Each structure stands twice: as C-alpha cells, then as structure tokens.
C-alpha cells in the first residue's frame, strides 16, 4: 500500500479520512488499493481508516484479529454489535467528512460497494459520507510505464492480426467454403496466443443482423457463415500475457466482397464523426489543461448522432476506462447509462466507441486513447471508411 500517496491525495481533496470496509470480499477495490490478498476468509467485518496525516486506524473482529496485520496503523478489536458500534464511533471521532466506496443515488455503480446500512449508521453518528470515486480512479486507473508499454505491445500485435483476419475472411468467402462467426472467433483466439496475447472471452465476430447486438458472442451451436455480400463487425480485445498488463480494445466494420451501400456509408460517416468529435474534445482539453469529465466527452459524441436523427439507436456509453481490467475503475465516457462526473486523468487509457444499431445492421467504430499530463492521442489505427474485405 502506498500510504504517502493516499494521504497526499486526501489532503488535495480536502477529506478527513478514507474509510475502507469489507465483508465476504464485497469490495475488491479495497483489496486492490490496500494490496491485500483477495482470497481467504473474511467472515467478519473489518474497517481501515486512513487520515490525510498521521497513523491509520484498524478495527477487526477478535476471531479474525490478524486480518489487517500487513497494514500499518493501530488496531481496535470488537466482538458484539454493540462493541462494534462503539468502537467505530471512537475510531472515527476526529473526522467528519469521510470517503468510502459509495456513490450518491448509485450514479456510478462501479464504485458503489458499501451497503446502505453502513452508510446509515455513519450518518447517524454525524459523519458525512462522500464518494471515493475520484480517489479510486487515481489509484486504480493511472498506468505505470510498464503498463503503457504493454498496451502498445498489444496494439501492434492486434492491429496486424485484424488485417490478417480480413484476408482470411475474404479468401474463404470467395472459395465457396465461408468461415463461420464462431470459426473466426476461435481463429482470433489462436492468433492472439501465438503473438503473446491473452483475452478473457470473445471476440465478437458478427454479420448482418447480428451486428446490431453490441455484445454478440457466437458459439459453436449458434453461428452464421460469413459470405460474400455480408456486412461484418469485429470487436476484439486482448492484453499482453503478463500480470497487470493493459488491454487494447477495438471495433471495425466492413463489407465482404462488395462495395458498401450509400446507406451504410452514411451511417458509418455519422459514427465516425461522433468518434472523432469526442477524440478532439479530449485532445483539446488536455492540450489546454482544462479538466474534462467522462460525461462531457460522451455528450460530444452523442450530440453528433442525435443531430443526425439516430440518437435512439445509440444505446450504450461512448467509452470505458481501460487498464489491467478491460473495463477498469477509472472514468468512463458516459452520460447515458450513468452520469460519470469522474475526470479523465493523465496517464490513463480509455475507449471511444460510439455506435448506431439499426434492425438490419449495426455500426460501431472503436479506438483507444492514452493521456499524458498535457496530451491525449489515439493509440492504434483509425478506421476512416468501411473496410472492403
């Protein structure tokens, strides 16, 4: 645990303390930030309070009294619920404004780990519980130099694998023995493994109406052939096969052995322009040192699609944080599913992936962006027109 960094962040945020709390491994964020093992028995509640200055304080049950021993700080013990309430009140007595893994109205559910009863009790003893969402972003989403390098490794390999896949798809379609969505899914998995990459599931290889399902996942039992004349979407993600590496996650669309229709070109252009508008908004914000929240970048992309008359068909957020987890704990580009007020921080990675999903086909264009203290850029190839496969 990086105690000096946590305490510095608390001072910058003007908070009295950050209270970590867990029971039955309900808060993996706490385990990650405190560098506790996310296994073993946690059959009793534990609490760990970190102030901006001074020594942290622990509160643990007597029969699991060693649970927080790896962490610095003084230790308090309890057995009964009455003793727990009294010990909590005493432990937190110096502080009023306390951060927890909590989100008002569950607005940012990704960090909403604390149960309502615990929040109610803390309020009853005069505490103001505030969201730790921005603190979590700072300690969970900011990438190390090695993680940034691992993202670019995955990007270079996966971009090349995708080009090879297009050649396989076109060749198989022209040969009269077209590959199926599922066969291409397996082909991608094997190709990634050969290049030192790993993935958790997927990818999404879909044709025609299946491309309208943004989380489509073909199986051996439910799959379609990829024939000449088809509309194709590939959403693929991977990371270097080493611990704590950073993911790369992209989506491309195209047509197989034909030219796109005017309608397909039009829809793609709207999605592309929405993507590029969000990219430019983020880029300008970082160059001008202007804070930008996730919801603001989402608004920019969504307005392009809404103005074109297709707002009803853009059914998900514009992007998600990317780190050691594919959907990480940093700010998402979202003002639809959530109102994400978390700032896009330097040295973080996230996707930009607007889409329009019509009944007959769907188009999404997904790129990844990486930020520094004063810049933001796309990390891989950028699709400018529908691919002719």
Secondary-structure blueprint:
Layout: H1 3-13, E1 17-22, H2 28-33, E2 46-50, E3 57-61, E4 74-78, H3 81-91, E5 97-100, H4 116-124, E6 128-131, H5 133-140, H6 145-175, H7 181-194, E7 197-198, E8 204-207, E9 231-240, E10 248-255, H8 262-287, H9 294-307, E11 321-322, E12 349-352, E13 355-357, E14 362-364, E15 367-371, E16 376-378, E17 387-388
Parallel strand pairs: 1-5, 3-4, 5-6, 10-17
Antiparallel strand pairs: 1-2, 2-3, 7-9, 8-9, 9-10, 11-12, 12-15, 13-14, 15-16
Give a summary of the structure in a few sentences.
The protein is α+β, with helices and mostly antiparallel strands and 389 residues long. It is 33% helix and 19% strand.
How does this structure look, described?
The chain has helices spanning 3-13, 28-33, 81-91, 116-124, 133-140, 145-175, 181-194, 262-287, 294-307, and strands at 17-22, 46-50, 57-61, 74-78, 97-100, 128-131, 197-198, 204-207, 231-240, 248-255, 321-322, 349-352, 355-357, 362-364, 367-371, 376-378, 387-388. It has a six-stranded mixed sheet. Strands 7, 8, 9, 10 and 17 form a five-stranded mixed sheet that branches. A four-stranded antiparallel sheet has the order 11-12-15-16, covered by helices on one side. It folds into two domains: 3-140, Creatinase/prolidase N-terminal domain (Creatine Amidinohydrolase, Chain A, domain 1, 3-Layer(aba) Sandwich); 145-388, Creatine Amidinohydrolase. Helix 6 (145-175) packs across helix 7 (181-194). 33% of the residues lie in helices and 19% in strands. It has 389 residues and is of the alpha+beta class. The chain has nine helices and 17 strands. A hairpin with a 7-residue loop joins strand 9 and strand 10. The model has no long low-confidence stretch (mean pLDDT 96).
